Amino acid sequence: MATQIFVNLPVKDLNKSIEFFTSLGYSFNPQFTNEQAASLIISDNIFFMLLTEPFFKSFIKKDMADATKVAETINCISLDSREAVDEMINKAVAAGATTPNEKQDHGWMYGWGFQDLDGHLWEFVYMDASAAPGQM
Length: 136
What we know:
single chain; 2,3-Dihydroxybiphenyl 1,2-Dioxygenase, domain 1; 3 helices; globular; lyase
């Protein structure tokens, strides 16, 4: 079995979050979705578990970050083209997201991001590794 990643994110309104990510073209695994959590499918091996805040808190002993005030992470996902990056961000903004930063164009790498309904930061990038200036 291939290694998979499950990123857990707290959300204030699970139904609004499901609606938001569905409008971006994503789907959810119904086997791992209920009134407390939804399994957002990014790819065959990448999933985001959107957890209601009370359910998220049940897994931690620390304070939960308020992503509208502090950055806890930037979730970066690659796409197949610059146009796909722009399309994704434009869909997100139409669905209620904001764009905290301008597009970044480094020639071989192009990215743009949004802040979702709960303040989580998402970055989408297209990279042409064959044009990269050197090892990172």
